[in-house]
Specification:
Layout (H helix, E strand, L loop, with lengths): L2 H9 L11 E4 L2 E5 L4 E14 L2 E12 L5 E14 L2 E11 L4 E5 L6 E5 L2 E5 L1 E5 L4 E5 L3 E3 L16
Antiparallel strand pairs: 1-3, 2-3, 3-4, 4-5, 5-6, 6-7, 6-8, 7-10, 8-9, 9-12, 10-11
Length: 161
């Protein structure tokens, strides 16, 4: 790749070798709507949507495809559970957007979104998980118990600064 091409890619916000990881879907039943470019996945008991180490389980996924036939957006409903490492999020519905690698979880009125991370539990009205940056943002009446794990200051050795 020439320097001009690399500079052009960087100026457009793209990395020269940046590729999104594939999204895999496992389901009991699949319905394609070629006119609308949507795919409905139904699970018995659940649909499993996997992107690297993040797993999204739910009863049904309605996915919108891009021009290449890849999932651009997935709307998950029914007993939604998102897991990544020791973190587990439960909610009523979740939307995964491939272009931004964001999963947004919401629950019905009066029912919280719950995130459990090891011994910590936090609830709120909406949770946004940035899969690329491994960043969780919880909004709306956030309540929980945060239990520190491990050394929170990696520069400290043996209890000294």
């Amino acid at each position: 790749m020439t320097l001009v091409a690399a500079a052009l890619l960087l100026s457009l916000g793209a990395e020269p070798s940046a590729k999104r990881p594939p999204v895999r879907v496992d389901a009991e039943e699949v319905r394609y709507s070629y006119k609308e470019r949507t795919v409905t996945f139904v699970g018995r008991p659940s649909v499993r949507l996997t992107r690297e180490d993040a797993v999204l389980l739910c009863t049904q996924v309605v996915a919108e495809n891009d021009a290449d036939g890849k999932i651009a957006r997935a709307n998950c409903t029914g007993e939604v559970k998102l897991t990544r490492g020791a973190r587990t999020v439960t909610c009523d519905s979740a939307v995964f957007v491939e272009a931004t690698a964001l999963v947004t979880c919401r629950s019905a009125a009066g029912k919280p979104v719950v995130m459990v991370d090891g011994p910590s539990t936090v609830t709120g009205q909406e949770l946004v998980y940035d899969l690329d940056r491994d960043l969780v943002t919880l909004r709306g009446q956030v309540v929980g118990d945060i239990v520190p794990q491990g050394d929170l200051n990696p520069r400290r050795k043996g209890g000294k600064r």
